[in-house]
Amino acid sequence: MHIAMLSPIAWRTPPRHYGPWENVASLLTEGLVSCGHDVSLFATADSQTSGTLHAVCPRGYEEDRSMIPKVWECLHISELFEHAEDFDIIHNNFDFLPLTYTGLISTPVVTTIHGFSSPGILPVYKKYNNKVFYVSISDADRSPDLDYIKTIHHGIDIKQFDFQPAPDDYLLFFGRIHNDKGARQAIEIARACNKKLILAGIIQDQAYYDQYVAPHIDNDKVIYAGSAGPVERNRLLGKACALLHPIQFDEPFGLSVIESMACGTPVIAFDRGSMPELIENGKSGFLVGNVDEAVETVARIKEIDRAYCRRHVEGHFTVDRMINEYIQVYEMILDPERL
What is the rounded CA–CA span in Å between residue 179 and residue 2? Predict the structure, then answer.
């Protein structure tokens, strides 16, 4: 099977630090290649892959602010679709814009919908409903206006995450510094518990950081560690006694939640979006409704078996499971009798 994997170009594939969609595109590409498939990865020119790299964009536009994103997105997407006939299937990880090319080609396209940035993008998805194939990343993130071929939860390369049976005594916030992710609430929870908190992630909303995060950073009780690459991520997640995930939106998925549990670290998350699909309440973490409930569960965190957290990921969220499910989807699309 010859597959074209379309990755975003905000960041390198795989990302050096942040870049969840690029991360998934990389895991898919490498997993498919290891299964013997011929994969062309359409990504930035500095990307790394064991497949065939096809690039027109030199680097991620979030890493080089002199680049005009829309210009390079047009060049990047059109490059793939002008070669569409070379492939058995196109796997789009680039949101809605590539859908507008699909009426011009005969190669089937499967689109992983990584989330809806706004209800305003739905008209594009609705226009191409039943013309392309949609995969949701959680049941919670399905639109009632669209048809889906399957829900496929993300998987991670569990070899990148070391199990840590004996953590240090700190709480961790790992994600974008933005209201959506709840850094402010994480600080409130840690303060109420009188626990040390480490925050790691890109500052996506500078005004939010300046108002709600920066005033509390004292490099003692509250530490901002910046954006963590893979090695630092493994260490921070593994040595935390719990990951705080007090999200303020209905999150489509949460890679850091899975990565944390892979290290044995339980997750205390607000019960929204996909969280009930990822966390077994009381077994691999706690689902809570507010800051006060989160504070109560921090005191109970030793009730969680860290080895169970690891087993939960091994049983449900490995990259091998994700790859197998996508291969099944490709085969269904290429053999219409299986649909």
Answer: 41
Q: How far apart are the first and last CA of the chain?
A: 18
Other C-beta atoms closer than 10 Å to the C-beta of 101 total: 18
Contact at 8 Å (CB) between 273 and 141? yes
Q: Give me the percent of the chain exceeding a pLDDT of 70.
A: 99
Do 226 and 92 have their domain in common?
Answer: no
- Cα–Cα nearest to 72, from 81, 59, 63: 59
Alpha-carbon span 50 to 224, nearest angstrom: 34
Question: Residue 129 — pLDDT band, cuts 50, 70, 90?
Answer: very high
Question: What is the average per-residue pLDDT within 119-129?
Answer: 96
Task: Return the bridge partners of 150, or none.
Answer: 135
As a whole number of angstroms, the distance between CA 174 and CA 227 comes to: 9
Q: Name the pTM for this structure.
A: 0.92
| Domain containing residue 84 | 2-155+318-338
